[in-house]
Amino acid sequence: MLRIAIADDHQLFRKSLKLLIDSFGEMQVVLEAANGKELLENLNTAEVDILLLDLQMPTMNGFQTIPAINKAYPEIKILVLTSLSEKETIKAILGLEVQGYFTKDADPNELKEAILKLHQHGFYLEKKLASIIETQVENQANALVFSDREKEIIRLILKEYSGKEIGNELNISPRTVEKHKYNLMAKTSSKNFIGVVVYVFTQGVIPIEELKI
Questions:
Q1: DSSP single-letter state for residue 145
Q2: Strands 27-33 and 2-7
Q3: What are 47-99's pLDDT values in tens digits?
Q4: Residues near 93 by Cβ (< 8 Å), separated by ≥ 6?
Q5: Topology (CATH) of 2-136
Q6: Where is each Response regulatory domain found (predicted)?
Q7: Cα 197 from chain centre
Q8: 81, 106, 137, 207, 210 from 204: Cα distances, Å
Q9: Counting beta carbons within 10 angstroms of the beta carbon of residue 69, is it exposed (0 to 12), middle (13 to 18) or buried (19 or more)?
Q10: 51 and 5 Cβ atoms separated by less than 8 Å
Q11: Does position 204 have pLDDT exceeding 60, yes or no?
Q12: What CATH class is the domain 148-210?
């Protein structure tokens, strides 16, 4: 049973989200908070696997909360909930050290899949938000060049292959797969693999159509 925390200042939205998540059957909301301060004050009372975090909250917003969570509870995966699509906000979001992004106006039924994919694969990027990112973020003049092998690794990860399955497909060891993933994160200056995914979409290295949702 996945243990979920929700931090959002809109009580009606938060309560509705809790009811939805609890109805999925494979996960349960164990903690609710109206802002980052309340969340941090109560995280020691419950074990949490995944945090659904709003960015715009009073007292302590999501941007302020993320570094504190990563420092005190690095094992918690963060799925950012956002309704924002402005260019400057998108750029700010891309700089966050989180594992996933989900827009608030998405189909509620997609949330279960988003949470499960984040738990299983370590990252999640909603296709709608990825499309916004692709169109609104300018290409870098000195964009990185990726080898065919690096692109193969990324494509197979986007197809949700495990490290072992990627190794079998490319005739390399799972350890080599992990080394490739680490090198890709270092190459793109990413803290986790969602950073690599965002980079390859914004720079046109991989077409957005290859994001499996």
A1: -
A2: parallel
A3: 999 999 998 899 999 989 999 999 999 999 999 988 765 555 666 666 678 88
A4: 55, 80, 82, 84, 101
A5: Rossmann fold (3.40.50)
A6: 3-119
A7: 10
A8: 25, 24, 11, 6, 11
A9: buried
A10: yes
A11: yes
A12: mainly alpha
> Which residues in 170-188 are b (16+ Cβ under 10 Å) and which e?
beeeeeebeebbeebbeeb
**Domain boundary assignment for the chain:** 2-136, 148-210
Q: DSSP secondary-structure letter at 160? A: T
CB 98 within 8 A of CB 194: yes
CA angle 62-16-21, nearest 5°? 85
DSSP string covering 62-96, please? HHHHHHHHHHH-TTSEEEEEE----HHHHHHHHTS
Angle at 181 between CA 71 and CA 91, to 5 degrees: 60
| Helix H or strand E encompassing 164 | helix 163-170
Structure tokens at 176: 């080599």
| Cα-based distances in Å from 40 to 4, 32, 95 | 14, 11, 21
Least Cα distance to 106 among 73, 87, 123, 83 occurs for: 83
Residue 82 phi/psi, 5-degree rounding, is -140, 145
Each residue of 144-175: pLDDT tens digit?
Answer: 889 999 999 998 988 888 889 999 999 999 89
Query: Per-residue pLDDT tens for 95-123?
Result: 678 888 888 888 888 899 899 989 988 88
Longest Cα–Cα distance of the chain, Å, equals 52
Q: Which two tokens stand for residue 147?
A: 């080898």
